[in-house]
Amino acid sequence: MSRLSHLSCHFLIGLVVLVGHTLPTLAHSLEDLEENLKGREKYAQIVNRPAPSFTLTSGKGEPVSLADLRGKVVILWFVYARCPDVCPLHSGALASIQKQVNRTPMRELVQFITITTDPEHDTPELMRDYGPKHGLDPINWTMLTSGPEELSATRELAEKYGLKFTPVEDGYQMHGLVTHLIDKSGNLRARYHGLKFNPTNLIVHVNALTNDYH
Q1: How many domains does the chain have?
Q2: 148: domain CATH number?
Q3: Taking the model in full, what pTM does it have?
Q4: In which domain, by residue range, is 129 found?
Q5: pLDDT tens track, the chain, 214 positions
Q6: Which of 9, 38, 52, 72 has the fewest CB atoms in 10 Å of its CB?
Q7: Which is it for the CA torsion 155, 160, 164, 166, positive or negative?
């Protein structure tokens, strides 16, 4: 076992003992773990297909593509900054997961990506501030946009990921909540729906993907 695998495994054993769950990461393969998750995590949809590709722009004005992130596990979700309720809750929940991940060597192998579906309003300055405002650490988090010239591009991208953002009055959008988990090769491995999934299950899943249990 590599030092990374050893440290990540010990972290997860401690975490799971703390919350009182069996450790599914002791499964013999990633496939075993994902089969285990199907039975224990009702809010997780296990899939294995290429994730929809994108090339977008960060708050620093830098292009970022999904291909650029090969070699890292990606935790990706869609929001818009004017959202008054569920978007802040979603980002806050993932900030808590990021804190757990970043206490381990997994930090170097995991990238958190937020994509705005309101590129007209969500300016680069606002995007840079969004993460710290919601507890996200820029060390391995970034927010991406299509830019105001392509107002519907990120909503169309969300639809490719199976999630619809529908503009309504006063700048709001109707939408669901999904956390997308993408492996090092750019394959979508799971969609965690809503906010009721057990964060331990997502962290264990991320750990397995960083260690390439294939």
Answers
A1: 1
A2: 3.40.30.10
A3: 0.88
A4: 3-210
A5: 444 444 455 455 445 433 334 444 455 689 999 999 999 999 999 999 999 999 999 999 999 999 999 999 999 999 999 999 999 999 999 999 999 999 999 999 999 999 999 999 999 999 999 999 999 999 999 999 999 889 899 999 999 999 999 999 999 999 999 999 999 999 999 999 999 999 999 999 999 999 864 4
A6: 38
A7: positive
